[in-house]
Description:
Layout lengths: L1 H14 L4 E2 L4 E6 L4 E3 L7 E9 L4 E7 L6 E2 L8 E3 L5 E3 L8 E9 L4 E11 L7 E9 L5 E9 L5 E4 L7 E4 L2 E4 L7 E8 L2 E8 L8 H38 L1
Parallel strand pairs: 1-10, 2-10
Antiparallel strand pairs: 3-8, 4-5, 4-9, 5-6, 7-8, 9-10, 11-12, 12-15, 13-16, 14-15, 16-17
Amino acid sequence: MDHIRWLLITFLLTDISCNKECGPRINVSGAEGGGASLPVKIQGQIKDVSWVISDGRRLNHFATTKPNEPVDIRDFQYEGRLRSETDASLTLTDLTNQDQRIYSADIRLRSNQICDQLYHLQVYKNLSTEDIQIHANITQNETCNVTVTLSCAVIGSDVTVTWNNTNSPVTEVTNHTLRVYNAYSDVTYSCTARNPVSKASRTAHIPVTCNRDPQVGNYTQQNIIRLGLSSMILVITSYLIIQHFHGMKRET
């Protein structure tokens, strides 16, 4: 639905004017609470730039910029949040998700030529360690061959995930999941998440232990003792039998 909404707004902003396009749409990224600049990239002397947004129903000419002059804010909700650069580019500050939208700049030159430039501003949150969750699953076989599966879940959009310590032949990475074969307890793994404006990492130290059945060791020890006792009894019995036969020979 959001994609269709952007298409409708883009169509409205471009269709409402008969002016030619200044160039292809410019994508701009900004962080929540930070700022973003909508650059005016055009050859020629700029007279003024009218900045327009749309909510899908009506157009809102919310600001005008001119080279080397303060911004003229026409919508009170932008008071204190807009700045005009020396080349008439527009900078928005204290960004929120509400600022994520399509913007149109009607650029008028001193020669009275006019063109329209579209911008797509995307606002992202600054990632932190708290936005990353690492879930672990540990399996082992009878010989204590331990496999650790780590999955990295991140809150946010347009996020890419990478793992460290993945150069070993006993590791395997699929999407956000890291699988470690023959895992050792003294190795830590770090998941790093990145979006266009920030990055954050979280480290996992997975305690790897082999839970052998303690009774197995007891059974083995008992068997060794039994074997030793049986051997001693066999030796003593054999000795007594041999001595008995020797005694019988002497009597005869």
